[in-house]
Fold Pyruvate dehydrogenase E1 component subunit beta.
Amino acid sequence: MAAVSGLVRRPLREVSGLLKRRFHWTAPTALQVTVRDAINQGMDEELERDEKVFLLGEEVAQYDGAYKVSRGLWKKYGDKRIIDTPISEMGFAGIAVGAAMAGLRPICEFMTFNFSMQAIDQVINSAAKTYYMSGGLQPVPIVFRGPNGASAGVAAQHSQCFAAWYGHCPGLKVVSPWNSEDAKGLIKSAIRDN
């Protein structure tokens, strides 16, 4: 009680210096970027860097992607490199695998990874195993991309997480970014990887 009383009874001239303090505020130096925008930036940089990189999937071009991850890319790179596909995951995944085997670097986007189950034969048997089955002679530089698990909040039918399952398939490298810095760096690394 004495200590509190002592603080209360201090003359105003003793505490007036505290009242006159100026606090300086500066803007944060780091730019806040969403994971969606970080992935977009990473894909944009890789599309600009390498003419062999292209993106295909449902609604990735004119609609800018189901979750707007490919926003602006179709306008910048045109319909030869940003390709809208029919709703046929097995079909466009097969096209992407064939393009990768021919030396291109496709980014094959699934609206959700639940839909990758429609293309499981292409992902596992055609893309993942070919490098090993060819004794390292036939690389398949492909990126299968899309939201996985509950990230998109699209209910039970589209919210399973297949990361662990795909991670156990020889020939596949699975990445799950935690933040925007991870997302941009990992998408760029994945596109460049053989």
About this structure: The longest helix spans residues 35-49.
